[in-house]
Amino acid sequence: MCSVTVGPRSHPSPYAAFDRAQWRALAAGQDLPLDAAQLEELASLGDRIDLHEVNTVYLPLARLLALHVTASRRLWAAQSEFLGASTAKVPFVIAVAGSVAVGKSTTARLLQALLAAQPDTPRVDLVTTDGFLHPNAVLEARGQLGRKGFPETYDRRALLRFLADVKSGRGEVSAPLYSHQSYDVLPDRRQLVDSPDVLVLEGLNVLQAGSRTDGRVPEVFLSDFFDFSVYVDAAEADVEQWYVERFHALRRTAFQDEAAYFHRFADLTDEEATQTARGIWAGTNGPNLRTNIAPTRSRARLVLQKASDHSVRKVLLRKL
Fold first, then answer.
1. Residue 94's beta-bridge partner residues?
2. What is the distance between the alpha carbons of residues 52 and 44, in angstroms, rounded to a whole number?
3. 150 DSSP assignment
4. What is the CATH number of the domain that holds 128?
5. What residues pair up with 38 in beta bridges, in sequence order?
6. 8 Å CB contact between 172 and 68
7. Which of 24, 33, 218, 228 is 20 to 30 Å from the Cα of 49, by its Cα?
8. Is 124 helix (H, G, I), strand (E, B) or coil?
9. What pTM, to 2 d.p., does this model score?
């Protein structure tokens, strides 16, 4: 079933590769617990996806993740029996990483919906790392506002504490919330996470090893708290084009709101909007992808490789 080539000239890989047909067959006969209207609500602006793609890619992925969750519970039960003491089962944490505009938010929301439809994982929470960005006032004071999304613009200590609390079994852990409309962290607004069965954590740099200001390697990584990780991948040229298309769509919608942070872009001509979007990509999103995000791809347990039409053409699954 796996498409990895075996032979004297093959290059050993830690991943098993599946094409679309092979991957879809893994969920043959499974019912899709979504309809077109529900999918439209889950998809991010500009992310072209349909029910066929969900059946082909995301339903098998949800089934695989459900198997991992079940196996994790069995291991917990066996360890508790061995130790003669039972501790509370902590949430199964799934990380979803990838570039701006690559579709990771849609992937995360789909996984939340599909896993919540499983009988053994009725409580699935989704947290984005956007809420852990430093407020704009802090970034402006540090001269980092133009680098928003780079690792140093996040409160990584707060994010580590949040994950440590979740994986320690604490109830009612909270995460800060972020508004894309105001382009800032929302003061005095938090998301409550109260012992879910599964927690999906979505963000640009969640798979990065990280570093400290003194240059030393940190003792704890975000990935230390992950049970599974997904990287949404695509060629940079395609992702840049998707970003430009999304910028145009936002210019016609969200940017029209006078209260929006990017309202100043609402009256740009099509040519000006394209130039502005490509300038933002060249100055911020592209360098962040190449320097910080793409190098973490090899740390993921599973990689979804997208083609220029947004469809996933190959799935890479790390071998056990």
1. 200, 228
2. 17
3. B
4. 3.40.50.300
5. none
6. no
7. 228
8. strand
9. 0.92
